[in-house]
Amino acid sequence: MAYQALYRQWRPQDFSHMVGQEAIVETLRHQVQTGRIAHAYLFCGSRGTGKTSTAKILARAINCTHPINGDPCGECETCKRMQAEDFMDILEFDAASNSRVEDARELLEKVSFPPQFGAYKVYIIDEVHMLSNSAFNALLKTLEEPPEYLVFILATTEPYRLPATILSRCQRFDFGRIPAVLIQRRLREAAEGAGGEATDGALMSIARAAEGGMRDALSILDMCLGYGKKVDEALVRTVLGTSDRSFLFQFSSALREEQAADVLRLVDELISSGKDPQVFSRDVSGHLRTLLMAKYCGGEISEILSLTDEDAEEYVRESEKYASSRLMDMLDLFMHLETELRYSTSPRIALECAAMKCCLRTEATDQLALNDRISELEARISALQDQIASGASVQVERKSNEKEKGHSAPVTSRAGSKGKQAAKALTPTGRGTDEIWNEALKALKTAAPSVSGMLMMGTYQGSNGTEYRWKANPTFSVIAQSLNTPERKAQIEEALTAAAGVSCTFVATDSSEDQKKTEEASDESYLQTLKDTFGEEPVDVIDELPE
Ligand SMILES: [Zn+2]
After folding, report:
1. Tens-of-pLDDT digits for all 547 residues of the chain?
2. Ligand 1 centre and the CA of 77: distance in Å?
3. d(CA 11, CA 21)
4. Do 251 and 230 have their domain in common?
5. Of the residues 175, 199, 225, which one is the last residue of a structural domain?
6. What is the CATH number of the domain that holds 324?
7. 151 lies in the same domain as 188
8. CATH number of the domain where residue 227 is located
9. Separation CA 514–CA 175 (nearest Å)
10. CA 83 to ligand 1 centroid distance, Å
11. Does 533 fall in a domain?
12. DSSP structure class, residue 86
């Protein structure tokens, strides 16, 4: 006898052998028992979830003369004919390969002939969404006034591609993905039936890889059994080309610790062992996603992701070492890598590049620090411009001031005369407001890095003791708005309050108004400078310089 693929061997012959889909099976059994059969059924769901199997069982059950508990009896004459596939009244049609209207017409021509043996003539149309529009119209005509004996069972993975006119005439059943534990159980039966030995872990890996599809799961098991009778996790990984979990843990912790050399070594190991970068990148994404879920859901992931308790524990333990933002960033990088690899001609380099980006985060932080320094310099330049605008004499005064004080922060000296007074203000705890501001800044750097980054794009203007004012640099005037949003304002105020020991408020302003004033003022001060230099008496201007 020719070898029959496992998924064919294990295709359920009646409702009792179906795996999962209990609610659907229950409803259909009931319909068979009560004889309340619909004229059109629509079975939706992803591949391998049992749509076609259910359609076949239903077709036989409604034609069986003595159904038992809604299942075909397997004993009566029609059942025997159906088993021998010598039965004209069940017609199967694959719309994927017969999508033309002629094909549909040819099929529907036979509709007007009543069934020969059974009570119903059943049309099973697989992948029904593939039918052309005119084919749908032909089908619709039949669905509008179907003869008593006619039953359509339409199956599709993409119900949203069906016209509403068809959808509205069907009784719809949605087939969910089959839980991994149920798939594992059926795989165990199938492996033993084929005289193989398989470990629980191996079968679970197959079940998880099949993502709820029984047909895929049985096909993978079939491939594994093709290698030998003993199926373990290592064999499943070889067949699927996936990576071993300990390798993934090793890889992700190298990324987390930013050990670039280790990461590159692991990539080299991976490629040398013949693994596909694309499959690996998907594995890493899956691994990071599990870590992220472990971080938020804790031990519950064992149920959500069908992991063993031990594995779930390992994930939870590992996830605690990550900040969630870091995990998100890493996941983001690898998700992009997956897409990128589809078009990449040098997948290894793309993989290494993404991994390096994960590792070089510290340098990215350095970049942030650099940005901070640039904003600081911009603040100084802007301060100098203000100084120039308010006259050269001020500049000279300031210079000498700086010499006396040594290195003074430009941030405070820029704060204008009003700011300077305010900066000297003491808080109820007796500490200077500058000190409090700096302390709050330091706290924000860790508690709310983005807020602290924004604050670097402007300058502290001083405080009256409880209200702290800040002004955005001209190029970053939008930042003032962002900092005034309730959430960010609250974060800053919280940090200030904590540092000051009394309730503090925070106000951010942008420099656009100031700039107008400065421009007006600068004209006046220019005149003043001229007056200071030349006096108010008219001056003779001589073109030629004396020799
Ligand atoms: Zn029967």
Report:
1. 577 888 888 889 899 999 989 999 999 999 999 999 999 999 999 888 999 999 999 999 999 999 999 999 989 888 888 888 778 889 888 888 877 777 777 777 888 888 888 889 999 999 999 888 888 888 888 888 889 999 999 999 999 999 999 999 999 999 998 988 999 999 999 999 999 999 999 999 899 888 889 999 999 999 999 998 899 988 998 888 877 788 899 999 999 888 889 999 999 998 888 888 998 999 999 999 999 989 888 888 888 877 777 788 889 999 988 888 888 888 999 999 998 998 888 899 999 999 998 887 655 555 655 665 677 678 778 888 887 877 654 444 444 444 444 444 444 334 344 444 444 455 556 678 888 888 888 888 888 877 887 787 788 888 888 888 888 876 566 677 778 878 888 889 989 888 888 888 888 887 665 555 555 566 667 677 767 766 776 666 666 655 5
2. 7
3. 14
4. no
5. 175
6. 1.20.272.10
7. no
8. 1.10.8.60
9. 65
10. 10
11. no
12. -
Among the listed residues 171, 170, 168, 95, the one whose alpha carbon sits nearest the alpha carbon of residue 133: 95
Q: Is residue 39 part of a domain?
A: yes
Q: Residues 436, 301: one domain?
A: no
The one-letter amino acid code at 86 reads D
Question: Is residue 125 situated within a structural domain?
Answer: yes
Cα–Cα distance, 466 to 461 (Å, whole number): 13
| Rounded distance from Cα 11 to ligand 1 centre (Å) | 18
Question: How remote is the CA of residue 104 from the centroid of ligand 1, in Å?
Answer: 30
User: What is the residue whose two structure tokens read 């259909």?
Assistant: 28
Whole-model pTM: value is: 0.58
- CA–CA separation, 252 and 308 (whole Å): 20
In-domain check, residue 541: no
Segments forming the whole domain that contains residue 320: 245-359
> Kind of pairing, strands 121-126 and 90-94?
parallel
Question: How many CA within 13 A on the CB side of residue 472?
Answer: 21
How far apart are the CA of 67 and the centre of ligand 1, in A? 6
